[in-house]
Design brief:
The protein is mainly alpha-helical and 145 residues long. The chain has helices spanning 7-28, 36-42, 52-59, 63-75, 97-121, 123-134; strands at residues 79-83, 91-95. Helix 1 (7-28) packs across helix 5 (97-121), helix 3 crosses helix 4 (63-75) and helix 5 packs across helix 6.
Length: 145
């Protein structure tokens, strides 16, 4: 009998399907420079900008990794660093006009991917998946406590 794949692996595989499909579609739409790390940072940006430490926390990666990715995104003209109006010593990562355009393309792509997934899996399965993911799972389980 085949070994059952654990739920964490299945969720990661589903995330990768969406993310790799997104990056592939962005490349096809004329955004060849976008990487998985770039899309992960962009997914954490708020409309008024977000501090790098907050991006790292939301994405579950190191601040150093976020700083490197933000530098790459700056070089591509997709984000800029602006002063944080709340804390003058901090900076916010803000999408540029070009970055906002890539976000519009990405959001349209994600909607199309959901339609494609519905064709592949069926409306009921996708709706059940959405409902399970939207449910409140409660606080993080901290085994150290």
């Amino acid at each position: 009998m085949a070994e059952q794949v654990n739920l964490g692996q299945l969720l990661l595989r589903a995330f990768r399907w969406f993310d790799e499909s997104l990056v592939s579609a962005l490349h096809a739409a004329g955004w060849p420079e976008v990487t998985r790390a770039h899309s992960l940072v962009f997914a954490q940006l708020g409309p008024a900008g977000t501090r790098t430490a907050e991006i790292a926390r939301r994405a579950g990666v190191s601040r150093q990794a976020v700083h490197q990715t933000v530098r790459e995104l700056q070089q591509l003209g997709l984000v800029e660093l602006v002063p944080d109006p709340v804390n003058r010593s901090a900076k916010l990562v803000v999408a540029t006009d070009r970055g906002r355009e890539s976000t519009r393309v990405a959001l349209a792509t994600l909607a199309a991917l959901e339609v494609e997934l519905t064709h592949r899996l069926g409306r009921r399965r996708v709706q059940a998946l959405r409902e399970a993911l939207e449910a409140d799972w409660g606080p993080i389980i901290d085994a150290r406590a």
